[in-house]
Amino acid sequence: MKKLDTKLMHPRDQIILIIDKIYKSGLTTTSGGNVSIIDQSGDIWVTPSAVDKGSLRPSDIVVVRKDGTIEGRHKPSSEYPFHRAIYEARPDIKAIVHAHPPALVSFSTVRQIPNTNIIPQAKYVCGGIGYAPYELPGSEELGNKIADEFIKGFNAVIMENHGTVVGGSDLRDAFQRFETLEFCGRTIIYGNTIGTPNYLTDAEIEEFENQIPRLLPEMSHVEHPSEERAIRQEIKKIVHRACKQGMMISSYGTVSVRWRENDFLITPTDVARWDIQNDDIVQIKGGKREPGKTPSRSTWLHQEIYRRNPGINSIILTQTPYLMAYSVTDEKLDVRTIPESWIFLQDVPNVPFGSHFAGEETILNVLSENTPAVIINNDSVLVTGDKLLGTFDRLEVAEFSAKSLTMGASLGKLVPINNDQVEALRKKFLG
Questions:
Q1: CA separation, residue 259 to residues 50, 265, 275, 358 (Å)
Q2: Average pLDDT of 208-214?
Q3: Active site includes 361?
Q4: What predicted TM-score, i.e. pTM, was given to this entire model?
Q5: Which of 71, 79, 135, 149 is an active site residue?
């Protein structure tokens, strides 16, 4: 599948692409939410009013011309007035996403703004978050209050007892901001379920942004034999699968697979994970990178893991909703929930934020045959394994375990598999 160049897609097709992702990700309902784009002519393309978000077609999208003329089979969204107000207030904004995702609605109903310092990339993806007091949906008053927040420089606004609205330089930018903000909200809520969330300081986030190691030198000659191409296809499929299953978001996630000896292939940086294609993936060979490509900023860590652990042939570094609850609270993930969890994971320790930076040894010293995964505080989970599908399975088991524990927190204290039962599992499955 060819990479989607949304900048050359018609606004109708862009909107269908993104509203479909929003709906299928469970971030809006059949009737809720709306998306728009303003084009170079000043015309606003917007989702229609009262049409099923799960089955929208390009022909359903409405255009409101610069002169106010409406063209299309339907009425424009009832929230069109605040879209127009935002575009008038902020000419730099070219796309808007509004919806009622569960976590951000939760924040809106308790009159709070999620603290995006919960994970490192969110501060720069989301920026500051505004807050618009309640007004009647679809009213000019609501549009004015939201526009006032955008005038202050915010690109994302929590709408009191309503939801959220975000703007972007294009629709991909707006969607990434929307998705990342909802992920922050969920992480905080799930973290509060099992403990007390900790937040990164601005200095720690700056350190994260500044720790990008010097790029590896470019190789002069690149080979793409059949087995190398097969690995690219495998990585792409797993990344897309992870995105569809909510195990990876647009703004964060890295997958790599060993190729020959210590050479490997790894996902790039600054590419929306849901749209990564075979030719985006970066080959690392002999300590050099494929020309013209920027590999993940965690490339050094992957390189060292492969160099020091001959039995590890694939790595996934990502943010999943329930494992991140353990990441941000520093609570211990006890995998003695069901036999499968212990067999697949055995132990999942927490390591400090920054342990994944270039030159750090903590993760490299912790990983072993009995410790195939680690949780990096306020950052991510790192899972290793032999075959990539098996590594993804291990990630799924870890996330399901974290979800079960988070859900079970309201029922009572975990009663884990006891030591004798663990030893019996060890002898039968690992002996």
A1: 51, 7, 23, 22
A2: 77
A3: no
A4: 0.94
A5: 79
